[in-house]
Amino acid sequence: MNEIYDKYITMLNQSFSDAFDRMYKPLKKSNRTRLLPHLPHLYRRWYYSALMPNTYLSPANIIESLNYEYKKSPNIATNVHLTTPLRYTGLSYASHEYSKKIIL
Predict the structure, then answer these.
(1) Is residue 10 domain-resident?
(2) 0.70 cut: is pTM over it?
(3) Which phi-psi region, left, alpha or beta, contains residue 90 (left: φ > 0; alpha: ψ -120 to 50)?
(4) Contact (CB, 8 A) for 58 and 6
């Protein structure tokens, strides 16, 4: 994978991490514990939601554009997802490549 691509993906996900940290840290411990199982859902909502109102500018669309710009093969796509922590020490992300080709 391209270093520039990885840098942009990291910066994009860091914006979610920073916002989540600002919201998570002031919570009481009991509320933090209840919130962690819902973290993947919150990430997916952010990932597919518009960053600016009335636009198609979502993290998912940005990542798809980066795939198009920096990938060598147009038939490979990347899916970025949040890995769920058992204890919150920060967020980590994983990306997986998969083929867009349909095999019949």
Answers:
(1) yes
(2) yes
(3) left
(4) no
pLDDT at 94: 66
Number of compact structural domains in the chain: 1
Q: For tokens 């840098």, what's the residue? A: 7
Q: Which amino acid is located at 78 in the chain?
A: T
User: Which stretches of the chain drop beneath a pLDDT of 50?
Assistant: none
Q: Indicate whether 92 belongs to any domain.
A: no
User: What DSSP line would sit under the chain, residue for residue?
Assistant: --HHHHHHHHHHHHHHHHHHHHHHTTS-HHHHHHHGGGHHHHHHHHHHS-SSTTS---HHHHHHHHHHHH-S-TTEEEEEEEEPPSS-S--EEEEEEEE-----
